[in-house]
Amino acid sequence: xxxxxxxxxxxxxxxxxxxxxxxxxxxxxxxxxxxxxxxxxxxxxxxxxxxxxxxxxxxxxxxxxxxxxxxxxxxxxxxxxxxxxxxxxxxxxxxxxxxxxxxxxxxxxxxxxxxxxxxxxxxxxxxxxxxxxxxxxxxxxxxxxxxxxxxxxxxxxxxxxxxxxxxxxxxxxxxxxxxxxxxxxxxxxxxxxxxxxxxxxxxxxxxxxxxxxxxxxxxxxxxxxxxxxxxxxxxx
Amino acid sequence: xxxxxxxxxxxxxxxxxxxxxxxxxxxxxxxxxxxxxxxxxxxxxxxxxxxxxxxxxxxxxxxxxxxxxxxxxxxxxxxxxxxxxxxxxxxxxxxxxxxxxxxxxxxxxxxxxxxxxxxxxxxxxxxxxxxxxxxxxxxxxxxxxxxxxxxxxxxxxxxxxxxxxxxxxxxxxxxxxxxxxxxxxxxxxxxxxxxxxxxxxxxxxxxxxxxxxxxxxxxxxxxxxxxxxxxxxxxx
Lengths: 236, 236
Description:
Distance between the termini of chain A: 37 Å
CATH class of chain A: Alpha Beta
Oligomer: homodimer
Strand content of chain A: 5-15%
Low-confidence stretches of chain A: none
């Protein structure tokens, strides 16, 4: 079975939701048969590259609240994160354009290191005093994830590298009706929106597993080979 | 959209079917949004490693025919292949255990070179005077596909390398009800069995594209972030 998770690394509920999904997956009997793929989704695709602002200030402005009130909103999210055993810093985090991070995550996917990099990026952004909007931090994280430094630098320096992969993921999200993240899709059949409790994920995995079947309107008539090497051959 | 193709490289209809699928895909308007993944399926999983026999002899024995009659059966397949613009040699091909080839194809997948290697292996087996049951040929094909020679040798020398990936693909085929190959699965939703005409693939792709939607019984209630950075925050 295959689970696709649309997420943005700037999205707190994606960070929390991934931890909850991971717990839900651990409670699923067929967990070893599940492939997890991360898909790009930018919360702020139009934000200018290289321009960042403190999260608390952005929240205060967006909701018309004081900085203290905005800090209180962040503390609510932080409490959820800590409830999942995740560290969460309310102060010192920046908001910004995440396109380059998504491009780098696609390089990591091509090298089989996507989840490693994603976890490191989440951790740097939400738990550590490291800015994921600093290209040097991204290079260091890529190396920690097992990528080659030169490759990471090449991708970051070339705006077009993996850009189409990011956009294709985002088009797919729109086509599947996902307009908020995290968004989880099980075998392209079941969608789960948001950072649900772990048991919701376990149940959804069980339901999707039980419902696995392939509609095969064109299943007959094609020439095939069967095990033991018997191929449909005219005149055989 | 994602298309998974279960196939064995020893399967003539998989070779022909891939060419037909490729033509069908070329006629599909959203072809650039289609990801194609190849999945392992062994026609002869119990065949001893390192033991091969000429295909014509194997066919004659299986169907109780003379060698000439078996050659005639192969000529029928060859005619279909040539009809797709593929070279096909009736004589000089061997049958054998393809487990190591599938393991190598999984290495190639991890390096983003799976289709390149698959096409080269098909071509070596069906069109060229090269035995894909010779490890040195496989190493050469891997290098042609862009893999590192040392990695290919390491994988071929270690029976366990990517073995579980091959078996997982085969378990999935069984769970999806595929008992012959090629077997095409579109977005885990539509199955197409056999080397169908190209237009059948185009129609199936169109049908699967039109039917894209995700059942979302748990779509509500999870905490999400929306574009423009609006996250569900208690008290916001």
